[in-house]
Amino acid sequence: MGSIYTITISIIGVLLITGAILVILNDNQDSGRKVAWILIIGILPVIGLLLYIVFGMNFRKPGFFQYRNRQFLDIFEEKASQETKNLLFDTIEEDRIRPEYRSLSRLLKKDSGLTVTDNNEVEIITSGGRKLEALVNDLLAAKHHIHFEYFYFLKDDGSKRIKNLLMQKAREGVKVRFIHENIANITIWPGYYDEMKEAGVEIVKFTNPNSFLLSKFNYRDHRKIVVIDGKVGYTGGMNIGDDYFFRWRDTHMRITGNAVAALQYSFLNSWITSGGRIEGNFDGFFPLKRAVHDHKLVQIIPDEPDREFPILHMGALWTAHHAERYLYIQTPYFVPPEPLLMALKAAAFKGCDVRLMVPKKADLFFMGPANKSFYQDCLEAGIRVFEKGGRFIHAKTMVSDDYLSIIGSANMDCRSMELSYEINTYIYNEDIARENYRIFMEDLRECREIKLEDWAKRPWYHRFTQSVMRLFAPLL
User: Fold this and answer.
1) Is there a single domain that holds both residue 12 and residue 125?
2) CA-based Rg of the chain, rounded to a whole angstrom?
């Protein structure tokens, strides 16, 4: 009897593993991810299969998660004014972009429909202290609503200061809505947020722990968004925490003008699809825009597995393919999907000055070897690689040819490009591009350039560790 039971279990196990491998092979995801998952399942069949179900299944397919967006779009169609829809979706400002960049703007609006906006002021923030100061002042001035959406909202001193301020404004009668990325912040006791609720802050959990689909836990809300009264917006790389406020080097933005409407649109989408409710119409969230007497062209693009296409990955590919004179990149995690790596190498091959800046020491023990596993490819193609010492660099930026700047939440890795809910800002403006160029050059002062001849002499055990991490890089 026991032998029959053992044989039955073995047959079921073989069928499950075989089925999982067939699903992986039939998937349209990156080939590197396929190989990595098949290897994991082959080495650790039971654990590997469970890990794949939770973390590996690809849901960026029509008709699976898209019901979330359809739910929001129906509500938005009913509650938003035609003026708001025109502001978000009309393409009238595209003609003001340089002709060679208009195809990028059209590409980016493919899924969300969000277009480029004029009449914006953008402050590039590279100091966490400056962000904290500006954010506190803007929160204190809030009259109608405050919308908060962050990957990390921690429990340290800076975070508590913001938390107390949100509670204060809620008690004053300002509508404070807070999206809680509960999987990333799972170590923080729920009572921390219950105190906010008692003060009147409305909170929704981004991931429903009672979801019928455990695999949804793999899809995190990595965005960083603040919208105050529909007039002031913050977005970029900085979360809420002391590392971001006081210790790390990051890049964020304070935006006023028409582009704030796109941040608001993205927030409301997350709010409603996470279970939040909005009473009445949306007029108070999209106030009539006053001229800010600036003409920076800004396009804010959210990306998420709910959508059919990985639009931020496509935007990065476009940028690499079209860069002519220079393309400078800052990212804490450089484990790019294969198409993006090839595009960056192609840019360098054609003579574009491609430079990559990553931290000398990663904040996660496995990311150092993972980042370094791509150095050889880059250096052999002519991409210049710089490791930044001093403060850990958490910035996620690209700047090209004194015109295009990209600042956002998305790292240059498979998770950001394929799995996470992200938001990037594309700025078509010479002054902003030159400022980002200057910031990159200032950061170079704390960098050591990696040379190919020196890199070839690294110890064999470093090579081995990096090779192993390269194998699993598509899963990081």
Assistant:
1) no
2) 23
243 catalytic residue (yes or no): no
Q: Is-catalytic flag, 321? A: no
Looking at 264, 294, 324, the residue that finishes a domain is 294
Which entry of 131, 243, 396, 413 is annotated as an active-site residue?
A: 396
Count of structural domains within the chain: 3
Encoded tokens for 140: 């204190």
Is 231 among the catalytic positions?
A: no
Given 169, 222, 313, 372, the catalytic residue: 222
Does 335 lie in the same domain as 277?
no
Q: What is the Cα–Cα distance from 26 to 469, expressed in whole angstroms?
A: 25
pTM of whole model > 0.90? Answer: no
Measured CA to CA, the distance from residue 356 to residue 341 in angstroms comes to 12
Q: Residue 446 is part of which domain span?
A: 311-475
**CB-CB contact of 179 with 153 (8 Å):** no
127 and 209 belong to one structural domain:
yes
Q: For 275, left (φ over 0), alpha (ψ -120 to 50), or beta?
A: left
Residue from 229, 243, 413, 443 carrying the catalytic annotation: 229
**Catalytic annotation, pick one of 175, 205, 394, 413:** 394
In a domain, 37, yes or no: yes
- Which CATH number do you get for residue 175? 3.30.870.10
Whether 7 and 48 share a structural domain: yes
On whether residue 115 sits in a domain, the answer given is: no
Tell me, yes or no, whether 468 and 370 share the same domain: yes
pLDDT band at 473 (very low <50, low <70, confident <90, very high): low
Return the H-helix or E-strand segment holding 130. helix 128-140
Is 396 among the catalytic positions? Answer: yes
Q: Could you tell me which of 326, 313, 334 has the C-alpha nearest to residue 433?
A: 326
Q: pLDDT tens digit string along 138-192?
A: 999 999 999 999 999 999 999 999 999 999 999 999 999 999 998 888 889 888 9
Are both 174 and 196 inside the same structural domain? yes
Which is catalytic among the residues 34, 147, 169, 224? 224
Active site residue 163: no
Q: Judge whether 394 counts as a catalytic residue.
A: yes
Q: Is residue 114, in this structure, part of any structural domain at all?
A: no
Residue tagged active-site, from 30, 401, 413, 443: 401
